[in-house]
Inverse folding.
């Protein structure tokens, strides 16, 4: 399955990107709070980029874990993190958009925060799509593995049945010849 390897590689690359976006968003949020504290009192939405960055960071780390271990529970946890990252990115964008309308706003900083939020949202959407592809691939792999296992067990039971039938026929032949039958 070459496409499965491509999906895992894409997931790992996007996870590293998401971790970088999360760290950048956190650092810009801290810079924004430090710059705002000197000018005015903190208000609602000033720290939204920090929370969004934390969600992106956790989402990226879960993506790395999902690329390494592809169990059902980890994929479900990763999907939940993707949804949280998506929601936090949207809320961050909306809060920063409102804050940027203030007269004392740091426009270049807010623009950078909104760009990071948009990139985080896009990566979260791609994560969701890749997770669905990876889950489908894993389901198909497990199905084929189970089918192979069942086929192998049927072959073994058929072989055992043939061996027992052969032994029973030889025992019957020996008893007809007048010889004593050997123990099983």
């Amino acid at each position: 399955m070459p496409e499965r390897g491509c999906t895992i590689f894409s997931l790992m690359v996007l996870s590293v990107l998401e971790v970088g976006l999360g760290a950048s968003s956190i650092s810009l949020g801290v810079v924004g709070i430090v710059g705002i504290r000197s000018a005015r009192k903190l208000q609602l939405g000033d720290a939204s980029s920090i929370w969004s960055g934390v969600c992106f960071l956790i989402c990226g780390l879960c993506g790395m874990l999902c690329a390494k271990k592809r169990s059902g529970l980890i994929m479900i946890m990763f999907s939940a993190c993707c949804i949280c990252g998506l929601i936090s990115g949207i809320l961050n964008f909306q809060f920063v958009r409102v804050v940027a309308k203030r007269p004392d706003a740091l426009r270049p900083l807010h623009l950078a925060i909104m760009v990071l939020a948009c990139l985080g949202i896009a990566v979260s959407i791609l994560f969701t799509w890749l997770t669905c592809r990876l889950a489908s691939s894993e389901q198909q792999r497990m199905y084929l593995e189970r089918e192979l296992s069942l086929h192998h067990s049927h072959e073994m039971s058929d072989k055992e049945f043939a061996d027992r039938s052969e032994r029973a026929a030889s025992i019957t032949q020996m008893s007809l010849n007048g010889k004593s039958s050997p123990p099983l």
